[in-house]
Amino acid sequence: MSTDESDPVKTICPYCGVGCGIQVKQGDDPGDVKFMPWADAPVNEGRICIKGGAATQVVNHEDRLTEPLIKEDGEFREATWEEAYDRIVSEMTRIRDTYEPDAMGFFGSSKTMNEENYLLQKIARRYGTNNIDNCTRMCHASTVWALRTSLGAGAMTNSMADLREAGDLFWIQGANPGEQHPIANSQYFRQAVLEGATVIQVDPHANKTTRSFKISESDRHMHLQLNPGTDIPLLNIVIKTILENDWIDEEFIANRTEGFEHLTETLESFDKAAAAEECGVPLEDIELAAEKYAMANNAAIFTGMGMSQHTCGVDNVQNEINLALITGNLGRPGTGVNPLRGQNNVQGTCDVGAMPNVLPGYQLVDDDEARRSVEAVWGFEIPSEPGLTNVEISHEAGRSIHGLYIMGENPIMSEPDANEVAKRFEELEFCVVQDIFMTETARYADVILPATTWAERGGTVTNTDRRVQRMRGVQKVHENTKHDLEILMEIGSRLFGEDGFRFDDVEAVFEELRQVCPSYHGMTYELLGETGLHWPCYELGDEGDPYLYESSFDTENGLGQIEGVRHQPPAEVPDEEYPLILTTARLEEHYNTGTMSRRSPTLNRQHPENFVDIHPNDAARYEIEDGDMVTLRSRRGEIEVKAQVTEAIKEGVIWTTPHFAAASANRLTNDVLDDRAKIPEYKAAAAEIAITVASNGGA
Ligand code: SF4
Fold it and tell me: What number of CA atoms fall less than 13 Å from residue 399's CA on the CB side?
């Protein structure tokens, strides 16, 4: 897993789902790990954003965990690996014997590699539970659900390269690639825009995407600044406008879809004018955007967490699918419905089965035939009932869940209603955290296992457009840390025996993965080489598909599923006590709970603390000035942040981030879930704001 000290190794940026190739090089001292560009990297061709360029800063950070820790009498003490393993195995065995296998929960990680997540979910299933999940639950579980059931695969239908080459119009709803996927934005989308592509942005917040395409100064592009939680009515206006004007693709609807009548019936008495008022966007603007979408030769939808993180997240994405299907914008380059995935391996973590309802390759756990085919390779029985999602596991902590195994996740900060999550974690009988730093969650652990960082180990990750790429590592910086895979092999072997849990190397794990994951079956480390392969890649020699569904969808009958949906307001709407809508999003310079980015001097300098965006009219009403310290409150907690008075945010809405432990948005967010995908509603909660300390020193 390591290489000659002086040779740079080609690997993948550990941050977002774009999957940019970078190099790392180790100096004479193992701790001296440097970033180097990779000029002909397949995705980014040498370009890099601020996060990628700073990624090596955390590798030898002084806060690294370097020894296993065991908690005794409320305090951590250093322990040997033997002690740590013994404690974990005896506690996991005790919990299974005392209760049942479903009393344990397992959190995989979108920041770790395919092989590691594959082995963790195999351990969970051998233990006897499907209570295994990862943070895709928080970002795109609803997108995956809608895409999988209506089209076939829970992933981008197209790839960044074909979108750049063939896309005429980009409909970007609830996504902010200018901030979250900077290289995709600059290298792919902006290139297409320079060559004439139009951008329609749908978002309550004017952001880096708005600025990067100069949308507000353009006649060609549009920004529809809607109220949070009104995506369904906005898309229904678009769809009804297309139906009224007969801009549909009749042949595509007739030959490739079913459910069109349901959509037309749903919209029969739909009142566009009333819906536009609800959205807070002029009707004629939405109608014009509909015309632009319908008239484009190739129109692509990009969808993000502004769509998925709602109690109606599945329906939000279904309505995007409806729009693409009725206009025939699927199955060709430059089209499709394309979720922009957040973390560098969130796609792969789902692909390899670290989810409670699916096995590797999205084979349903309650499908007897699928389960049998995986059991034939694994040699043990897999539980047939879908398990709990990670938010459900946290809700059940100390109730039906008594033990937790957490690899590289930080639920105390990342989950909604974080104060309650912390309370629940206090009730656990046993918790293991495997990580590189003492995270907010690790403080609740009984055993902490010090893992190596992304730069010190090898494996594969899968980026947002389904490209599986290899990561390669330099030498370990700290002798007594271990690679995630080594740790999992040891735990698995001690619990269940070596057979099926001890592998010669990381490639051997991938070899087993491809036996049980049909869409990865045609890949080997050698074939992945330096460019990687897009899935699906069913047989050796398949080149992988840069875009999906050319001739049919991967649904049972091969047809794309249209289904009309109706507006469902957020679970919490403003009232007298909490008169504002709180919405949340991320910054380019930080990454989720900030475990790594807050420890990177370059990134932290850009944004060392949290803040809230508030519209000037709201600020005037609350007598808040730019720079004042304010308290944000919801029914679940409060945080203190600096106010940023800006017209970028819609009136009546306040906007903040989850990155900073001292004032994380998730102390305020609502943990209500979408019924099907179980994704929380991070994007809309009722809140209030009050001035704490004025910037002029008053209170
Ligand atoms: Fe890394 Fe994403 Fe930036 Fe590329 S765009 S360098 S993958 S953070």
Answer: 8
